[in-house]
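Dear Dr. L.,

I hope this message finds you well. Following up on our conversation about the binding site, I have prepared a predicted three-dimensional model of the protein together with zinc ion. For your records, I am including the exact sequence and ligand specification that went into the calculation, followed by the structure tokens. Please feel free to forward this to your student if that is useful.
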Amino acid sequence: MYNFKVKSVVHDYEVQFIDNTHSCLLNELRDGDFIIIDNNIVRLYKDIFDPILERTRHICIDALESQKSYQGLIPVMQQLIENGFRKNHRLFAIGGGITQDVTAFTSSVMYRGVDWIFFPTTLLAQGDSCIGSKTSINFGNYKNQIGGFYPPNKIFIDLAFLNTLEPAHLQSGLGEMCHYYIVAGEQDFFRYKNDYPLALKNKEVLAGLIARSLEIKKQYIEIDEFDQKERQVFNYGHSFGHAIESLTDYRVPHGIAVSYGMDMANFISVKLGYIPEKVRIDIRELLSQIWQGFPIGDIAIEKFKAALGKDKKNVGTELRLILNKGYGEIFKDAMKMDDRFTAWLKEYFENEL
Ligand SMILES: NC(=O)c1ccc[n+]([C@@H]2O[C@H](COP(=O)([O-])OP(=O)(O)OC[C@H]3O[C@@H](n4cnc5c(N)ncnc54)[C@H](O)[C@@H]3O)[C@@H](O)[C@H]2O)c1
Ligand SMILES: [Zn+2]
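The resulting structure of the complex is given below.
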């Protein structure tokens, strides 16, 4: 299968596609290692994990946003310390992005850094978050406010986990992966658009899309791991997306909110003369399939503007938006929240949702 290495300032790491998590995990585990695993994975995959968990020290967590917070981490760290977890032992994360963030953050601070190994089980984690080193936890109601960059030492991707994923989480992963393909260029975008309906039925197609998505992300994180410059294009769709997530109390999953966000960024890009309407419509044909079943037409514009104004990437009162000058030409632009911008948002909410 497709295996590759990612270069990192912290330490290089390897991504392997596997088809037998049980034997891979048994092969990797050493005395003293601890598993941090999502309760839903334990429940859904008893045959794989029960025999291993019987003889390996582990912590089961609920994949809830409240778990990735200082309060949520206290019992995790307490169990590690009280049960003889040492600096030469490793943490194994098995779950989606929440389990990843809990384990990555813990690994980065325990004893000033311990090794960790990741088995991502959601599409979002397999096709996006597993590489890139980010380790954020929440602070109160504020998402991903605290953290750093601390990649795993190895990542093992087993597509079999996706069989039990809720359709909304599958859609969300496909929405998140989409932005990589628009950033990469026209050929990649149309491949994604073409493969999208097939990926839902055919694992080979899905595996190809995951691998390419990671390959695109790898090119950027290897030159700008700490998100100072080139990597920032991956915020495409995210300023609008985060506003949608928070105003819908996270009822709209991240990748679906980002799909709306990309469409909004494209709408503004047309208004500014950056892309022709045809490009916006070609992309919207795909995005509208991804966000199906998650309407957001009831969001009030004033609240939307207020949420956009809180984006941590803003400078002073100016927004920093990632806009579109064409496939493969995604870039950062400054934008005043003036009457013109408000009128465009109003037009979008009235006519496009
Ligand atoms: N560190 C990063 O780079 C990064 C990047 C993107 C997102 N994130 C974070 O990731 C989190 C979202 O992660 P996510 O969407 O991967 O999922 P998640 O961890 O939030 O899990 C979503 C749900 O799916 C369940 N689940 C997990 N695997 C399953 C499977 N194989 N079958 C059935 N159910 C399964 C979980 O129990 C949970 O109920 C957010 O907190 C987000 O901030 C982190
Ligand atoms: Zn995202």
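In brief: The longest strand covers residues 142-149.

With kind regards,
A. P.
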